[in-house]
Amino acid sequence: METKKQTVEKKKREGKKSRGVSAGLVIVCCAILAILFYAFILGNPENFMNNDPNNHPKPGNMLGTIHKGGYNVAIVITLLLTVIALSVERFFALTKAKGKGNLINFVYDVKSELKKGNIAAAEALCAKQKGSVAAIVDAGLKKYQEMEVATNMTKEAKVQEIKDEIEEATALELPTMQQNLPIIATISTLGTLFGLLGTVLGMIRSFGALASEGATDAIALSAGISEALVNTALGIATGAAAIIMYAYFTGKIDNMTYAIDEMGFALTQTYAETHNS
User: Which long-range contacts (CB under 8 A, 24 or more apart) does 241-245 make?
Assistant: First the structure.
């Protein structure tokens, strides 16, 4: 039988194997894609009058209009692509952590087997469900069985051991589930701030055109306004996407932690009710 230390080390190794994609690598790749997109797609001469990027965009050409937002657009696009990439990564990671079957049904079935005293059937359900939640429940079930044969502890101490085992297993699995979410949360603010920065730069450019000597430079004025409006739109879209994705994934994690708490309570309560020592 594995010792507590061996079990913890085993879970740490499994956690390292199941770690998600590095956010740093994702950001670098998204930055490269954003720069290429800005330079060659948005900046394609065909998007502008007389095939000159220094002129107005062709009527109705959104790619050229976005390009007029300036280099700050590439930064905001980097943030937007990062949100999309990390959201896709988190979707698959949390789906794997949840397991194969319906989580509510899994909790209900395990609790039913516990009430019957059928620990082996509960472990079989965990093996079938797979994922982080099932791994935590399985760790609690193994500790449950260890406490049944332990003779040198009080019932209260055994119940506490089961509870501690579940909390320890949760502490090992939770960081994997939450990985990259702080980056998405940060981008929800950065996207808006960089959009605001581009807006301010665009307005400075516009007022500079208005303050120039002689006739108003219409091209410079319109370019400044485009820069301001494009950055505002992209910044708001990026911030909104990050907020929505962060709320969605934290909600999924909350559902899983609720299931874990429910199973922890069921294990300790069942042991306390069915064992005299």
Answer: 241/80, 241/83, 241/84, 241/87, 241/191, 242/79, 242/83, 242/184, 242/185, 242/187, 242/188, 242/191, 243/188, 245/83, 245/86, 245/87, 245/90, 245/184
The residue whose two tokens read 């061996």 is 6
End-to-end CA separation in angstroms for the chain: 21
Q: Are 199 and 225 in contact (CB under 8 A)?
A: no
Higher pLDDT, residue 70 or 14: 70
pLDDT at 258 over 60: yes
- C-alpha 214/C-alpha 22 separation (Å) is 54
CA 47 centroid distance within chain: 36
- HSE, CB side, 13 Å, CA atoms: give it for residue 70: 23
Q: What is the pLDDT of residue 224?
A: 67
d(CA 238, CA 76): 7
41, 33 Cβ separation under 8 angstroms: no
Q: Write b or e for each residue in 159-180: b if 16 or more Cβ atoms lie within 10 A of its Cβ, otherwise e.
A: bebbbebbebbbebbbebbebb
